[in-house]
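notes to self, project folder thing:

trying the whole complex as one job this time. last attempt i did each chain seperately and stitching them together was a nightmare. two parts in total, labels are on each line so i dont mix them up again. if this works i'll redo the older ones the same way
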Amino acid sequence: MKYIIKKFFSMIITLVVVSFCVFLAFNVIPGDPALRKLGTEASPELIAQVRHEMGLDDPLIVRYFNWFTSFIHGDMGTSYNYNVPVAGMVLNKVPITLTMAIMSFVLTILVSIPLGIFTAKYENGFIDKAITMINQIIMAIPPFFSGIIITFIFGMIFKLFTPGGFVSYTEDFGGFLRYLIFPSVAIALPKIAMTVKMLRGSLIDEAAKDYTRTAFSRGNNTNGVLYRHVLKNAMIPVITFLGMLLADMVAGSIVIEQVFSIPGISRILLSSISNRDYPVVEAIIMGVAAIVIIINLLVDIIYRIIDPRIEITD
Amino acid sequence: MKAFLKKLKKNPYMIAGLIITGLIVLMVIVGLFWMPYEPTKMNASEKLQGISVKHIMGTDNMGRDVFSRVMYGSRITLLIALGTVTIGVVLGTIIGALTGYFGGILDEVVMRIIDAMFAFPSILLALVIVSVFGTGWAQLLMSLGIAFIPSYARIVRGEVLRCKGMDYVESARLQGVSQFRMIFVHILPNIKGVLASSILIGFNNAVLAEAGLSYLGVGSQPPYASLGKMLSDAQQYMFTVPSYCLCPGIVIVLIVLGFSFLGEGIRRWK
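result (full assembly):
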């Protein structure tokens, strides 16, 4: 419990540091938001009034505090370009990104764990060597390139999905999931290769330890030792790694959404960057960062539950 | 030399890594002096051609020679990767060595910041920097370099902490070595092995990150070529002219593969 509380506080500190840096970055940009809103024709009095209304004449730290508290309450500011609340523009896109990240995560676990166990079990056999080799190659393919190839093969040749034919989850949930399978595969591919490599190495390391010999000498067969003893210990570093992957997948979906022309947060983010619509950029960056940080906290807690030996280090 | 060749023979990863990386570097070096065509020169009568003797990787939707653009783009990619890893390693080593060696409140504060940076995905950092400072390769280099500092700082800090308690450090201290000399002359050379393998991994990640960000259009700006941007332009012609899309993509894969084979080869070098 003490551990969880300590981790929770360190997460809060991380969130504050990250949010302050993001806030600072978008507030040192030259250009006056009030002037932007009113146009260059506006009278100085009007600008001063609007500046006051927008809270722009407060000190930086007060503005940060106001921004942060309203952000937590779900008010993410107003878009410069569309003049609508950012929350309304962004929040309904979050399920798309999260669904995609979770699908690729599940896919990674389902494929990589059996494959990792298999390659470790038949270490240095022909199939193990072949998989290790293929793994190296898959790790070198950037997800957006495999995404393009997947679109080509499964979308254009086999016609399993219509490239660009994304359906929203509000219209047809089944169709939404079906469309997202392909981008999820593109995100998952290199992660699967990494996890297999990691699990294989971890299993082989554990299998060389003394307790494995003890377990064998007590009359267990290979499968008994593997599943009852070795696997449990070998999974510990892999779980930390998987946690990092989930966070990575949330961020990585920004690129993949673009490949499969999915109208998720990535499209708004990129168009807002080129239109200099800072409140939107700020909100999305902060939102994604918060999701990633919270995932990290959950992983730490799960890790602790699985392996109570973990002490608070640093 | 003979012993080297004998070792090399038993190490297929090293051979493959040296060949692939060698070819890519050769292509970039040749590209400094000679390219088949001007990479930005458009030619409306030769657009979207497939592979031919005249254009060995075909042409793009503006009639530019894909091979010349790949040569130029690989140069940018390698330079950005080199710059990114250099910034990350130099600053990361300094931060990691100082915090690890001195510890205390400075260590505590800097490590919290490093943790926060670690939790912040590098793609987001790059997008923040790009939206504040505008798009371009310099901004890309800066953001990737900053994003790479935390991992090296952590590695070096951990190693310095490990070395700090060792006998040779103690004996150097008894000889009255200054703290600066202790860190940079006595301790750092002992951790170069750990650093070397993480540098190769860093190269890989830098190439992939650069390609991904330039795919999003935040890297070097048109008309200058970058491998990622070429892929995003080529995507819609995948069905009509597959070579336009496949060639830059395969070159990215080869660059990364070359480095990862080299890393694997070094790991297996006995």
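what i see at first glance: Chain A has two domains: 2-86, 94-263.
need to look closer tmrw
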